[in-house]
Design brief:
Layout: H1 4-33, E1 45-54, E2 57-67, E3 70-71, E4 80-81, E5 83-88, E6 91-94, E7 96-97, E8 103-104, E9 109-114, E10 119-122, E11 139-143, E12 150-155, E13 172-174, E14 198-200, E15 206-212, E16 217-220, E17 227-230, E18 237-243, E19 249-254, E20 257-260, E21 269-273, E22 280-286
Parallel strand pairs: 3-4, 7-10, 15-22
Antiparallel strand pairs: 1-2, 2-9, 3-8, 5-6, 5-11, 9-10, 11-12, 13-14, 15-17, 16-18, 18-21, 19-20, 19-22
Length: about 290
């Protein structure tokens, strides 16, 4: 005859087995019916990047060695949408893909060439109207336009060798003071005359500069606090974005449109606004 302890032990075993079966059933239900949200997959590639010397100009060649299929004109069921940026001492430029660029698959090669105002992206250099590079101080970034994450980064051997000088407009005040002393024997009088003060204040387009969140970086000019910068009409102005320690420049926007997705942790980034003829708004995000 079984004791009460044996009966209680068997009941406990049956309860444990039933609980395990219910847990396994719940896991299978979640996997089969997709209750758990799927984490979007990010693109990944390996590539060879180099400067290709052509008659009268040089182009940037990018050879897809392996990884995911990319698309420069939007996503498809078989490819990931990406954008390419070329960073130069004169500013950051988003490459414009040619109409026949197609998908970027392993084994394919694409080329970036300078047009004088920016960069174009093509699958062949035959018949292109390219201009010489203004500098070989270059960086190429392939960026996910949705998340802003950098998929690939390449720097030329001369990247970072060009010194950038930041010019800060300074108000100039010219003061002329004329003093005339007239002395008579009787009575004695002193007469002092002051000429008007002439002040020269620079005029031109105003650039409003701001950044967020506060305390994670600075933009010069204007300096440590947001403000405005006056630029002579038709001139250029370079801005330097300096993140705090262990922080980075996430993005830079001009008049609400992204012009750069920043750099790596601790990296100082510059952006030049050329041929300024009107008011602009420049914003940056640090993180």
């Amino acid at each position: 005859m079984r004791s009460c302890e044996d009966a209680f032990s068997e009941m406990t075993d049956e309860i444990l087995i039933l609980a395990i079966v219910m847990i396994l059933g719940a896991v299978i239900f979640v996997v089969v019916f997709g209750v758990v949200p799927q984490i979007p997959k990010g693109a990944y590639i390996t590539a060879d990047v180099s400067l290709k010397q052509m008659p009268g100009y040089s182009a940037i060649a990018i050879r897809h060695r392996g990884g995911d299929v990319l698309n420069f004109s939007g996503s498809t069921e078989t490819s990931f949408p990406v954008s390419i940026y070329v960073d130069t001492p004169g500013g950051s430029f988003r490459a414009v893909p040619g109409p026949a660029i197609g998908e970027f698959r392993p084994g394919n090669t694409v080329y970036l060439y300078h047009t004088g105002t920016g960069y174009n992206l093509v699958s062949s250099l035959i018949g292109v109207a390219a201009l010489p590079q203004l500098s070989e101080d270059l960086r190429v970034r392939i960026v996910d336009p949705v998340s802003g994450l950098m998929i690939l980064e390449w720097k030329s051997p001369k990247f970072g060798t060009t010194a950038t000088k930041t010019v800060v407009p300074i108000s100039t005040v010219s003061t002329t003071i004329t003093t005339t002393l007239t002395k008579n024997v009787t009575p004695t009088a002193t007469v002092t005359t002051f000429a008007p003060v002439t002040t020269s204040i620079p005029s031109g387009p105003v650039i409003s500069v701001s950044w967020s969140p506060p305390g994670l970086g600075t933009i010069s000019p204007p300096g440590v606090t947001p403000g405005t910068v006056v630029v002579p009409d038709g001139a250029s102005q370079t801005f330097t974005f300096t993140p705090k320690s262990m922080k980075s420049v996430l993005s830079i926007s001009l008049d609400g449109s992204p012009v750069s997705f920043g750099g790596s942790v601790g990296q100082t980034t510059t952006y030049t606004l050329s041929n300024v003829h009107g008011a602009h708004t420049l914003t940056a995000t640090f993180g």
